[in-house]
Amino acid sequence: xxxxxxxxxxxxxxxxxxxxxxxxxxxxxxxxxxxxxxxxxxxxxxxxxxxxxxxxxxxxxxxxxxxxxxxxxxxxxxxxxxxxxxxxxxxxxxxxxxxxxxxxxxxxxxxxxxxxxxxxxxxxxxxxxxxxxxxxxxxxxxxxxxxxxxxxxxxxxxxxxxxxxxxxxxxxxxxxxxxxxxxxxxxxxxxxxxxxxxxxxxxxxxxxxxxxxxxxxxxxxxxxxxxxxxxxxxxxxxxxxxxxxxxxxxxxxxxxxxxxxxxxxxxxxxxxxxxxxxxxxxxxxxxxxxxxxxxxxxxxxxxxxxxxxxxxxxxxxxxxxxxxxxxxxxxxxxxxxxxxxxxxxxxxxxxxxxxxxxxxxxxxxxxxxxxxxxxxxxxxxxxxxxxxxxxxxxxxxxxxxxxxxxxxxxxxxxxxxxxxxxxxxxxxx
Length: 429
Ligand code: HEM
Hints:
Distance between the termini: 70 Å
Number of strands: 11
Strand content: 5-15%
CATH class: Mainly Alpha
Number of helices: 14
CATH architecture: Orthogonal Bundle
Bound molecules: protoporphyrin IX containing FE
């Protein structure tokens, strides 16, 4: 009998592309939630990212996302992104030492406005706190399998008053946070509509467009929560890495600044019309995506029927993980992969060749590919170009004028972030 594969990791782009993209029809499901605790008791399966590929909600959710974040619809968000960018640059000017917090506020503010028309007031805002609480629930889920009920599912039916049973209480707390995350911003919009003062947003547009059935209402609620969840953390992770890398590589920073100054001038920030004119900036962004790899293992896919690949049998039901991290650090594609070197993506003057574009895989694969990818790259382009145009980031100095290395320490389960670190941020003009 052939051994049954339960989980496979795809470490090479070519294989991931063959299976997850070219055979996307059968490789686009998500694993059923792995644990009793998080799947059944906390109810994390309501997250739209975990929705099965054969669930009728799946195409609907992808369509709703495409209407907001599809390549052709991004201009609609320009005023929000540019407005939040200005606020961010002001905050950075007045308290550069708090850049790490400013990044988180920026990323959350943009997505909250697009999804819910909600203006985040800062770190004291209830939604700022809610996001952090919900991230902790997710983290707990990823390090699950530590609850006895996951090993003996029958225990879930024991009465909750039995002494020593803590899991019911834990599940209830986590479930409440999940509900708040799905409901609080959504209910805010409903109230704003009732009060005739709702700002245009994904949710208000849907609610005002037509009479919603209860099922529509639920889908809209979960899709909006997926925007919030998927959109805030990822762009923040990228920008944190960008600040670190600029402090570590002044020569790269100076080259990008020189390109921006030459193309845009020194009096104003680049806008989206400069997209095609800044090749080095694009190379720099690709290298940040590759070097830091924000979502190292993507989100697991699930194969829905038996398959055969290069003589290997893969059973339906197998969990398939794209090891994006391994692709970013593949020595065959990227000589000296640990080196931060945007020149990889500038055509070689002799051969015209460039190394593989990480955008081919850092946003995932096939039918599950990140639906926010174009929006993310466009937002990041606007942020990175404006930061470089207005500021110089460098290492902090000690009392004797010596440079202090910024701390490099990462955390996170699904997304990978740098822990807070210090850099020096000085206005250029
Ligand atoms: C640097 C920015 C980002 C990176 C690196 C990133 C990466 C990813 C990856 C690797 C996946 C898994 C794809 C797969 O299963 O094959 C994913 C899924 C997803 N992302 Fe992103 N993402 C980013 C930004 C965003 C933004 C801005 C949004 C929302 C506006 C978003 C929303 C989502 C959603 C909803 C999914 C789940 C898709 C599904 O299950 O079908 N992401 N992302």
